[in-house]
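My current task is to audit a protein record that another person submitted. Please read both lines and tell me whether the tokens look consistent with the sequence. Do not assume that whoever made the record got everything right. I have pasted the whole thing underneath without changing anything:

===
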Amino acid sequence: MLAELIVCASLTAVDGDTVKCNGQNMRLLGEGVPFVSGIDTPEIGSHAKCIKERKLALVAKGRLKELLAENGLRVVFGGAVDRTPSHRPLINIYRTDGSEVGKTLLEEGFARTWSPRRRNDWCD
């Protein structure tokens, strides 16, 4: 499937690795491969397993908000949706310099590598 550019009239951070584009939640891939690799950020609110994770989640969400405030972002949908009940589209968001937002979060330490066989523990 060919990648599709998505136009978002409104683009906001839901948590560190989920955005809302025109009212629909979408999951950041960080240039990963659907169902094989990607990024993971701490869970927010009641989904967090400890206070440390909840605090880290707010910091990651804050950094994503900063990145989303930049002009000229390109939201790209590759055709896959996640396996949650909401079937969030898996996307990449590119900055004007060509860097990918999820990968930036990973490189800056706000996210960790995700794989289906490994669960990140943010409480350690």
